[in-house]
Amino acid sequence: DPFADDPKRHASLIQRTAKPCNAETPADALTADFLTPNDLFYVRNHMWVPKTDAASSDKHILTVELLDGTLKEYTLHDLKTKFPRRKVTAALQCSGNRRKHMGQGSGRPANGLQWTAGAISNATWEGVLLADVLADAGFDIAQGLTGLSDVKHVHFQGSEAYGSSIPLKKAIDPQGDVLLAYSMNNEPLPPDHGFPLRALVPGTVAARSVKWLNQITLSEEESMSQWQRRDYKCFGPNETKVDWDAAPSIQELPVQSAITGVKTKGWTRGTEAENSQERDAQDTRQPAQRVSLNGYAISGGGRDIIRVDISLDGGRSWTQARLLPDCTGEDGSPSPCQGHGAWSWKRWRYDGSIPLDAFCEQKVDGDFPADAKPEKPAAGIAGRDDDGRQWCTTVVVKATDDTYNTQPETHAATWNLRGNLATAWHRIQVCTDC
Ligand code: MTE
Ligand code: MO
């Protein structure tokens, strides 16, 4: 059993498969922490976890191969001692994040792990700049930056056989922050996250941040691996027999957002005084239910989130969520947030109330968005009761990035056979009395 040596995982991780381990971050951790604790960081393994003895990890060897076949070897100790250390705070998001929503929202299940909104996490990574190591190995960075080098792609190889590549342009972008990382949230990388060394490619689909990194190859071509040439590509909603070579591999991610926490504060009919006024006025005021929503929003390529829009009525009317300060712990303490782009997720919060008259009437009209199905019972929210006194509305989030790109309204619009890049508006149904 190649999985016999796999590490123990935190009991709160939501496991999708055991061997290999694929597990998402629970919603409360997505909500609570700007930096995801290492043991709650989502895990996406295609195979087993290669074993590296902690005591000898400094002897781990990274081989760099230049275009002419020249090989240069670095031990982890070399990387730690011969190059400047760099810290970058960045989220990793799997291209399959929210795939389950895509199936639910479109009525067409998509192939792959049925992730909800937790195949994403955020951490501070420490390591050395890929560009510094490439330069040391003999690659001419200045020429690379002109775009005239024959090298077009940088391949990463993991020691268990997984591999993929990124464009040279990203690899050596002075503001690209691509790291060879050996530390995560100020601890050595945990085994599940690549111990002792991984690539960390901020703003790019996490499939390129190769774990258990032992080889880097400069090339004119993309990696030949199936994870480069097949799995991580997108096609049109109609296409089921596809020309894999026709589509580019996913690199920078599109804009995404999700609701990770829903809290209602029960019935509110105002204060005692208001209640008696209400009665005096023959109850002309409708009750309102207070609701608090939390979540994240993120875009690729270092593009910042400029706005998070919230709808409490399935997308008819909109208001804006509050963007929470970056790099601040729940207790207000500053935590490091480093790098040249908006590589981290932006967390947001919305506090408001649902005007019950509006959505009780909607229910009477029977006019619900087609994909407004409850995705999971939201904490603190009652379900529909049998005598039909409870009604539901759909709360929706969508985000916009600094290029003014925004999320598609429906999953049907972007459904694809691999279920990649499920970024449609995230909808959650909430129910209460009328
Ligand atoms: N690297 C190796 N060597 N093996 C893998 O299976 N999975 C990739 C990427 N790097 C993978 C890998 C994918 S698809 C994702 S989403 C991220 O690692 C997940 O990183 P994490 O497990 O640290 O969250
Ligand atoms: Mo992934």
Report on the structure:
This protein has 434 residues and is of the alpha+beta class. Helix content is 15%, strand content 30%. The chain contains nine helices and 21 strands. The protein has helices at residues 27-32, 76-82, 99-106, 130-137, 141-146, 168-172, 226-229, 272-280, 356-365; strands at residues 14-17, 22-24, 43-44, 61-65, 71-75, 86-93, 120-129, 153-158, 163-167, 179-184, 187-188, 198-200, 213-219, 256-268, 288-298, 305-311, 319-320, 322-323, 346-355, 390-401, 426-433. It has a five-stranded mixed β-sheet. A hairpin with a 2-residue loop joins strand 10 and strand 11 (187-188). The radius of gyration is 24 Å and the shape is globular. Mean pLDDT is 87; it is low at 266-286 and 361-388. The chain binds ligand MTE and molybdenum atom. Ligand MTE binds at residues 41-46, 92, 94, 158, 160, 162, 192-193, 206-207, 209-212. Molybdenum atom binds at residues 44, 94-96, 206-207.
